[in-house]
């Protein structure tokens, strides 16, 4: 999938990497790497990446925005009841 297609897919429409994988038929790790590269490229455009971080549903711990895939366990309470992080792209010109 090209960068332009990722932008169109995620523009004002948050999706998890798992949802994207189902939609485009790619591997989770490949999509994660593509998105990391896309985020670097977006610095030179009018688009802004927004990452809704993964959270522990038990204790509320918030993971780093660098984690694009859902972690396996919470480092605080060891629970595996976690939300998937979601990714969205917003048009920075429409402030």
Give the SSE layout:
Layout: H1 3-10, E1 15-16, H2 17-24, H3 28-42, E2 47-52, E3 86-91
Would you give an account of this structure?
A three-stranded antiparallel sheet has the order 1-3-2. Helices cover 33% and strands 15% of the residues. The protein contains three helices and three strands; from the N terminus they run αβααββ. The model has no long low-confidence stretch (mean pLDDT 92). The protein has 95 residues and is of the alpha+beta class.
Quickly list its features.
95 residues; alpha+beta; 3 helices; three-stranded antiparallel sheet; 33% helix; single chain; 3 strands
Give a quick rundown of the structure.
The chain is of the alpha+beta class. 33% of the residues lie in helices and 15% in strands.
Measured as a percent range, the helix fraction is 25-40%
Which series of helices and strands comes N to C?
HEHHEE
Through-space gap between termini: 28 Å
The poorly predicted ranges are: none
Whole-number radius of gyration?
Answer: 14 Å
Spatial order of strands in the largest sheet: 1-3-2
Q: Count the strands?
A: 3
Report the biggest beta sheet as strand number plus sense, adding barrel if it closes.
Answer: 3 strands, antiparallel
């Amino acid at each position: 999938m090209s960068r332009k297609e990722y932008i169109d897919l995620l523009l004002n429409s948050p999706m998890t990497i798992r949802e994207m994988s189902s939609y485009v038929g790619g591997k989770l790790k490949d999509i994660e790497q593509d998105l990391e590269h896309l985020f670097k490229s977006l610095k030179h455009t009018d688009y802004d990446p927004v990452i809704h971080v993964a959270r522990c549903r038990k204790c509320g711990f918030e993971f780093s925005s660098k984690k694009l895939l859902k972690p396996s366990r919470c480092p605080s309470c060891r629970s595996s009841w976690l939300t998937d992080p979601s990714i969205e792209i917003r048009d920075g010109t429409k402030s």
